[in-house]
Amino acid sequence: MDALAELDQRISDCRACPRLVDWREEVARVKRAAFADWTYWGRPVPGFGPPDARLLIIGLAPAAHGGNRTGRMFTGDRSGDVLYQALYDVGLASQPTAVSVDDGLELHGVRITSPVHCAPPENKPTPGERDACRPWLVEELRLLRPTLRAVVVLGAFGWQAALPAFAAAGWTVPRPRPVFGHGTRVRLDGADGVDGLDGIDLFGCFHVSQRNTFTGKLTPEMLRDVLRTAGEAAGLTVRGEAV
Ligand code: SF4
């Protein structure tokens, strides 16, 4: 088992946040009527994608009946439908849909993770839960460091949660801390003293939540544009023109 797979396994066993453990397991017991036949995952959802990813996408937390049901990031909910369709459109995913862990989906040079690995009530983790989960993100970033060249952060929560993790994993985060915005692009240099650590390009993107996509705050075109630009910055081959 490679180091990242081992990390994913350890994350899946975490029970550090009592409120989230209770919630994820209760949701898995009660279920939504439409998914009554499913055996819910009901555990922390680890990152998804290859261990040598050049581009990392950071969301917020798994959805109660999405990732918490299927056991894979953004899989089985409408946010994921939007994200994977866009990744497929720009050539970074093998298929446009994500319905279960055995649906055959593969990401090309991309990994997806979140700063909080358990589904929170109302999609709102507390600051304490965010901080409790941060060491997992730091460890994931350290393991991805040799190949990682760009990161897309979906939404302000992920942005604020991730900046300290980048610093802890060895990158230099500018002071004052860069502010989240859709289309924001920030260069994080490798910190002095960390051998072989290349800088990364960090991109802000509105979250693919239903609230944003239904209202048109985030359109498919806006999402594709950020993914293309970030994919090119990461040295990946993307379809279409980056803006
Ligand atoms: S949110 Fe993170 S730290 Fe808290 S129980 Fe889940 S995996 Fe563990």
From TrEMBL:
<keyword id="KW-0234">DNA repair</keyword>
<keyword id="KW-0479">Metal-binding</keyword>
<dbReference type="InterPro" id="IPR044147">
    <property type="entry name" value="UdgB-like"/>
</dbReference>
<dbReference type="InterPro" id="IPR051536">
    <property type="entry name" value="UDG_Type-4/5"/>
</dbReference>
<dbReference type="GO" id="GO:0004844">
    <property type="term" value="F:uracil DNA N-glycosylase activity"/>
</dbReference>
<keyword id="KW-0227">DNA damage</keyword>
<keyword id="KW-0326">Glycosidase</keyword>
<dbReference type="InterPro" id="IPR036895">
    <property type="entry name" value="Uracil-DNA_glycosylase-like_sf"/>
</dbReference>
<keyword id="KW-0411">Iron-sulfur</keyword>
<dbReference type="InterPro" id="IPR005122">
    <property type="entry name" value="Uracil-DNA_glycosylase-like"/>
</dbReference>
<protein>
    <recommendedName>
        <fullName>Type-5 uracil-DNA glycosylase</fullName>
    </recommendedName>
</protein>
<keyword id="KW-0378">Hydrolase</keyword>
<dbReference type="Pfam" id="PF03167">
    <property type="entry name" value="UDG"/>
</dbReference>
<keyword id="KW-0004">4Fe-4S</keyword>
<keyword id="KW-0408">Iron</keyword>
<comment type="similarity">
    <text>Belongs to the uracil-DNA glycosylase (UDG) superfamily. Type 5 (UDGb) family.</text>
</comment>
<feature type="domain" description="Uracil-DNA glycosylase-like">
    <location>
        <begin position="46"/>
        <end position="227"/>
    </location>
</feature>
